[in-house]
Every structure is written in C-alpha cells, then in structure tokens.
Specification:
This protein has two helices and five strands. It is an alpha+beta fold.
Length: 96
C-alpha cells in the first residue's frame, strides 16, 4: 500500500510539472525565430551554479541532471546569460 501511495504521489508531481511549463515558437515579422517558455509555478525554477559536493561549476545541463534526485527530471534549462570575468557561468536556470 505504501508503494502505491508513493507512486501516486510521484505521478501527481510529474503531471504538475508537465502542466507548469508551456513552450511556443515565435517568428517575428523580420524573420527571427524565438523559443518562448512560460513557467506558471515559479517555485519549480531553481538556479544551479556549483555542485555542493565538490564546489565545481556545473558547466553543462547534463551535469545538473546527474545531480538531481532519481525521481526528478530536468524539464527545461537555460544559461542565465551571466558570466564571471573568466567566462565561467554565474548560474544555470532550470525547471525540474
């Protein structure tokens, strides 16, 4: 019974995550293409900068996915667009 309740809880979280993110592609009159992502639940938005275990910069989205709990999945990620003078990222924003 505990296993069933755990599965239903995870299922509910996954469904919530799916509906919290909306993606659309926009083309301007000038012909520029943009991807627009709307996040309705900002509590799911997190900033990742360094791995807490070794204090190394994540540097890639794959490294973030490896850090997440088994029940979490990276749904959307982008570079925050900010860099230190040595070009290391200030952080990577993602939604799980």
């Amino acid at each position: 019974m505990k296993w069933l309740m755990w599965c239903l809880t995870i299922y509910g979280l996954l469904i919530q995550s799916v509906y919290a993110i909306e993606h659309q592609q926009v083309k301007t009159a000038e012909g520029d293409d943009y991807d627009v992502v709307s996040i309705s639940d900002l509590k799911q938005l997190r900033l990742f900068l360094r791995n807490p275990h070794n204090q190394q910069y994540y540097k890639s989205f794959n490294n973030i996915q490896e850090h997440l709990k088994q029940c979490e999945r990276l749904s959307f990620a982008m570079n925050a667009g900010m860099f230190h003078p040595g070009f290391s990222p200030v952080g990577l924003y993602d939604v799980c």
